[in-house]
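request received
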Amino acid sequence: MSENPTRRDLFATVARGTVLAVLGGGALFLVKKANGQVVWQVDASRCVNSRLGEVGVTACNLCTTECVVALSAVRAVNEYSRCGRCNICPAYFNITSAVNELGQPSEKLCPRDAIARRPIGKVDPEDPANNFYEYIIDEEKCDGCGKCVMQCKEPLGLGSITLRVRYDKCVNCNRCSISKACPQNALMQLPVSQALQPAGVLRPE
Amino acid sequence: MQYRQVQVIDGKGALHGIAVDGHGHGDVYAAGEAEIKVFDATGRLARRWSTSRPAWSVAVAGDGSVYAGELGQIEIFDGAGKLRDTWRDDKLLRRVTAIGFSGDSVLAGDSADRAIRRFDRGGRFLNNIGKDNPLGGLLIPNGVVDFGVDGEGIVFAANPGKHRVERYTPGGQLLGHIGRFDGNDPAGFTGCCNPTNVAIGDAIYTAEKAGPRAKVYDFGGKLLAVIATEPFDANCKNMDIAVDSRGRVYVVETVKLAIFVFERVTA
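response:
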């Protein structure tokens, strides 16, 4: 190369560098994927079931219908640190069903009865409204339909329930069938360390 | 009974708690991000001043003093915004989302501990209200303690987790409640936790979230009217509510950052 490179030389150098960087990045990504270091995860800030501002819409169940895994590898997860432990949880009860003799909705929301609850702390047997409850999602029953997620999010709830890919169930397809169907591009591939973080805004590597 | 919307006051930025003065001037006081804003009866921003910490609530005492509820403290200003006193307490005043007066007492809702604190006018702590009565205190998953006080000094606290408005003596004794859960009947309170906010005048005024609405009940718990639903964005929550001596109802719209004013329609 001459001591005084032309603009053409400079462009060629930059272009070669860019191509090498892209190829290198792609190769690194494939190596990570092959080693199981890159996995699929749901971005709660994109998923219509958990995204703030989406109220009065029907819950999206594409994670249930599109996943190649039986029932779906996506399940509802309750982040206990954010849960309000409410007496009348809109994700547990169908809050528009008739009120029963205990003053509570008479029907549950989950079509698979995958959410259980138990009172915690001091318990008032006379008045259920005085009690706090722990809500436990049975992931073996849950099919990720998203109904509880939609009802839990603010302003109705506190947004403690989100949809998450469960890695003991996910087969880590190269092109996740849910991601192909999801109109919100809420499924993304991430390094394992990031994908295991609590639900929040996710960013691809 | 019916209400109509008569005014929309541009909040000029963030809006949390509001209060109306007791003199019938029509001034509306609002706690903003770290400031107090005063709107005159026409809705014009008449004056504003800074608070030293984020302000969550505001109240106007009979002598015109303005109390601002903040994180870890209450600041007391004169009507022009000059700081007169600061009550600082990192344990009792962790997040003051409501302030009121009962006789010679100052009441402060501390949402971090789900309790109402009662102080004398000098800032000396007297007792808690609603903390342990009957179990676990006020259930407020929505993060705001709010209450109103009637002319006799009785405290009406929103207990949204129980879908009730509870009545307490200033000493903290639970006297009873109104309200029940119902996801369909407008006379009930729906969702996980409603009503979030309450104001007391000639009746009990409540504000709810999901779907947002303001309502009025008599003191026996009978629904008198749904004041409004439609002007509020569906994402509103913790809409503070106030009522003035003329029966005008003021509701904070937390998405549009405005104060909606409603008036009873007379036949």
